[in-house]
Design brief:
The complex is a heterodimer of chains A (382) and B (393).
Chain A lengths: L6 H17 L2 H8 L7 H9 L19 H14 L5 H15 L2 H13 L4 E4 L15 E5 L2 E12 L6 E8 L2 E8 L14 E7 L8 E14 L6 H36 L1 E2 L2 E2 L4 H30 L2 H30 L10 H13 L4 H12 L2
Parallel strand pairs in A: 1-4
Antiparallel strand pairs in A: 2-3, 3-7, 4-5, 5-7, 6-7, 8-9
Helix pairs in contact in A: 1-4, 4-7, 5-6, 5-7, 7-8, 7-9, 7-10, 8-9, 9-10, 9-11
Chain B lengths: L9 H14 L2 H5 L12 H13 L18 H14 L7 H14 L2 H12 L5 E4 L15 E5 L2 E12 L6 E7 L10 E7 L5 E6 L8 E12 L3 E2 L5 H13 L3 H21 L6 H29 L7 H24 L14 H12 L6 H12 L10
Helix pairs in contact in B: 1-4, 4-8, 5-6, 5-7, 8-9, 8-10, 9-10, 10-11, 10-12
The chains are: A alpha+beta (382), B alpha+beta (393).
Bound molecules: flavin-adenine dinucleotide.
Flavin-adenine dinucleotide (FAD) binds next to strand 1, strand 3 and helix 12 of chain B.
Chain lengths: 382, 393
């Protein structure tokens, strides 16, 4: 039976935590939040070269280390704790995962090794103007002429789409939704249309400056079909479920960091001659936050073990449970942290708002709690 | 409730399953799902069922063999609890002695006490009550006033206990009493084992809001017990009591929460029958209830996995009671709302159905075993390390 970590997994956690403590400090987060790139390529390189984090769960034959989802969850949790700025979630949880799930051996051989070592940044371009994460939200069409596919249209709210080298794009063909790989630097296919410019990536200004979103315009961009035409929705659905669980782990990490900050402050801030943490109003709020976190952690870890066990029937339910529970908990705890800090917590200088905004954006990423409750209801046959 | 604990215990699990299948029949089967740790419903049948379990050797699975136990490990105990919950067998009537007193005696009792009491607990020959709370000492247990003084080879006990679960059935009580006159707070307390069958002990049932005589108040007037029936050292009763409270807040939660899963199934069944799932407001609350029950189970499994792996359980072991009791109460309100007007009627003699009983009794779950506010203090102070609540020295 699992649901606890092995010594090796605990060791990985320690290593990753120490790395982020050095290379993703609050100063780094603030610097990158103000920077258009939104991540530090030197740190990204070291994550790939020194720690092998991008390829941790990629099968060895595709250039990865062949570990499992539990290890990936540990890294995501620690990245969340540190509020890591960068495309880790987009490239690994969305990009690599979609490629692995697509079951297209040649594409995996061509594209995964670069993602695994971090030289390629990937992402999933699914959502369009409506911001929907479901099948019906995919409207963009792909065109086939000869044996060449091209894409024209717009994807938006694409996680780290502004820096992605490789976009995995969901688009409609005559037979249904298909998955395409598009290189961001791709030239437009000759004769694709007047003024065809390939791919244009535009960074979108966002409430949460620690995770970037972009609009990506395709204008006759040359695309490679991944997997079977028209058969991509189950692949995407599986990818989103996996990503939801990994995001949940990240949210647990973020919530834990926010609670740690609240507790630290409650121990030292004195009012009425006592540390504020000795007042039950504050103490009980902290206890409730921990209770919420531990419960959310159960949902997230339960999801990781569902992933690891490969039980596809369980996956959708476990993912929705994790997404709802961890989204609501992170938001509640990040808000509670501001409350415990009083006015100082309401300032730009204090890091509390960075966690709060990340919590809010993570709540919406991959679909809101209301949307995931509906997925859960469907999964349970309600 | 299918759980994979590996092949090591597969045989054991089959043995439990087979035995339960063969014995959970007739009247016992009709009382599936009845009872809870403080619920006296169908008492006689549950007691008979406990004896049936005893004859099968299923009580005290982890207790040493020399006292009538099976000497098996934590893994087997857990497998048994899951199988037990899966079978829907009635809640064990003697859980208090099995889960609280027994482990306390195994850990801290004298050899003579173990030989004298443990086999009789396992045979369901002697029933026990916990005499900790007093009218002036609930959450603040260190303020107990019941006193015991030595008179030759006997302790003489005077004072009052209250809220003693199943007190009117108890042959014995384990009593936290002040054995050093003038001592204060947690100093000078001792844990005494006191027979109830004597003129100095008067037990009066108290009717709970569910209409049942599930607990009692106990008056001691020069009641006596033998000098050697102190558990642990004289004057160290606080330590002994904290040991049992630790157990009460931890492991006894498992069987209780497993019954919540059965209640959730029943709630869903009724929601379907009445079309409640098509009401968006109810549907959302049903989903939330389902999620909370699933989370309780995973939290449990995390703790179990850590214990089995020889690790110290993490913070979730401390937060679990607050989460479970709060969410079970919420579930009860939901079940009553789904039941609607019909759920407001009871049988003659204030007879409650399972749902009504569970709903009403859930009001106690945030009080006994450490009230929610006390749980929050414990989480805040012992897990998060926040400064102590001001309390008397
Ligand atoms: C069904 C049931 C069965 C029980 N069985 C037994 C039994 O078998 N044996 C036994 O000895 N006892 C038993 N108890 C008693 C139980 O342990 C006590 O009820 C419990 O410890 C609370 O004490 P109290 O009832 O005196 O409430 P109080 O301690 O008076 O508390 C009243 C309210 O004040 C709050 N409060 C108290 N102190 C604080 C504080 N420091 N900070 C914040 N809030 C505080 C409490 O949380 C509660 O909300 C049982 C109780 C119930 C309901």
């Amino acid at each position: 039976m699992e649901l606890t970590f092995t010594d090796e997994q605990e060791e990985l956690r320690k290593t990753v935590r120490a790395f982020f403590a050095r290379h993703a400090t609050e100063a780094d987060v603030r610097r990158l939040a103000a920077d258009d790139l939104g991540h530090d390529p030197a740190v990204w390189r070291r994550m790939g070269e020194e720690l092998g984090l991008q390829g941790l769960a990629v099968p060895e034959e595709y250039g990865g280390a062949g570990f499992g989802y539990v290890e990936l969850g540990i890294v995501c949790e620690e990245a969340g704790r540190a509020l890591l700025c960068g495309p880790y979630f987009a490239s690994v949880a969305l990009g690599a995962e979609a490629l692995i799930r697509a079951g297209d051996d040649q594409a995996a051989r061509d594209l995964l090794p670069g993602i695994s070592v971090g030289t390629t940044i990937a992402t999933l371009a699914l959502t369009e103007d409506e911001g929907r994460w479901d099948e019906a939200g995919v409207r963009m069409a792909a065109t086939l002429s000869g044996d060449t596919w091209t894409l024209t249209g717009t994807k938006t709210y694409v996680p780290d789409g502004h820096i992605a080298d490789l976009l995995l794009v969901a688009a409609r063909t005559d037979t249904g939704i298909s998955l395409f790989a598009v290189e961001a630097e791709a030239e437009a296919e000759a004769g694709a249309g007047a003024g065809a410019g390939g791919v244009t990536r535009t960074l979108l200004p966002a409430l949460d400056q620690t995770r970037r979103q972009a609009r990506v315009d395709f204008d006759g961009a040359r695309a490679r079909l991944i997997g079977r035409e028209g058969a991509a929705w189950p692949v995407i659905e599986g990818t989103l479920a996996t990503a939801a669980i990994l995001l949940a782990a990240e949210q647990v990490g973020g919530a834990s960091a926010a609670l740690d900050a609240a507790v630290e402050y409650a121990k030292v801030r004195v009012q009425y001659g006592r540390a504020i943490g000795s007042f039950q109003g504050v103490k009980h709020r902290c206890a409730d936050m921990l209770t919420a976190i531990e419960s959310a952690r159960s949902a997230a870890y339960g999801g990781l073990w569902a992933l690891a066990s490969g039980n596809a029937a369980e996956l959708g339910v476990a993912a929705a449970l994790a997404k709802v529970s961890c989204s609501e908990t992170f938001t509640e705890v990040a808000g509670g942290n501001i409350q415990v800090h009083g006015a100082i917590g309401f300032t730009w200088e204090h890091p509390a708002h960075l966690y709060f905004k990340r919590a809010k954006s993570s709540e919406v990423l991959l679909g809101t709690p209301a949307y995931h409750r509906e997925l859960l209801a469907a999964g349970l046959g309600f | 409730m299918e759980l994979d604990f590996g092949s090591a215990v597969a045989d054991f699990r089959d043995e439990v399953r087979t035995w339960l299948d063969e014995h959970l029949v007739g009247e016992f089967a009709e009382h599936r799902g009845v009872g809870g740790p403080t619920d006296g419903e169908a008492w006689d049948i549950r007691l008979a069922w406990d004896r049936e379990l005893a004859s099968g050797g299923w009580l005290g699975i982890g207790w040493p063999k020399e006292y009538g136990g099976r000497g098996l490990g934590l893994l087997e105990e857990i497998v048994f609890e899951y199988e037990y919950a899966r079978s829907g067998a009635p809640y064990r009537a003697t859980g208090n002695a099995l889960d609280l007193l027994g482990p306390m005696l195994v850990a801290m009792g004298s050899e003579a006490q173990k030989q004298r009491f443990l086999p009789r607990i396992l045979a369901v020959e002697e029933l026990w009550g916990q005499g900790f709370s007093e009218p002036g000492a609930g959450s603040d247990l260190a303020s107990v006033r019941t006193r015991a003084e030595l008179d030759g080879d006997a302790w003489v006990i005077n004072g009052q206990k209250v809220w003693t679960t199943f007190g009117m059935h108890a042959h014995w009580l384990y009593v936290l009493a002040r054995t050093e006159p003038g001592s204060r707070r947690h100093k000078g307390l001792s844990m005494l084992l006191v027979p109830t069958d004597q003129p100095g002990v008067e037990i009066r049932p108290i009717r709970s809001l569910a209409g049942q005589d599930e607990f009692a108040e106990v008056f001691f007037t020069d009641a006596r017990t033998s000098v050697d029936l102190v558990v642990g050292e004289v004057g160290q009763g606080w330590r002994t009591a904290m040991g049992t409270l630790g157990i009460e807040r931890g492991s006894t939660l498992l069987p209780l929460q497993l019954t919540f899963e059965r209640e959730m199934d029943a709630l869903l069944r009724q929601a379907r029958e009445q079309g409640a799932l098509t009401d968006p407001m109810l549907r959302r609350r049903i989903l939330d209830a389902w999620m909370s029950v699933r989370i309780m189970r995973t939290t449990n499994l995390r703790t179990v996995a850590e214990l089995l792996g020889g690790r110290t359980p993490g913070a979730q072991a401390t937060t679990a009671k607050l989460y479970a009791s709060t969410n079970h109460q919420r579930m009860g309100h939901l079940a009553m709302e789904i039941a609607g007007a019909a759920g407001q009627l009871v049988q003659d003699g204030y007879g409650l159905d399972t749902r009504q009983r569970s709903f009403l009794i859930s009001l106690a779950e945030t009080i006994y075993g450490g009230a929610s506010e006390i749980q929050r203090n414990i989480i805040g102070e012992q897990v998060l390390g926040l400064p102590k609540d001001p309390r008397p020295a």
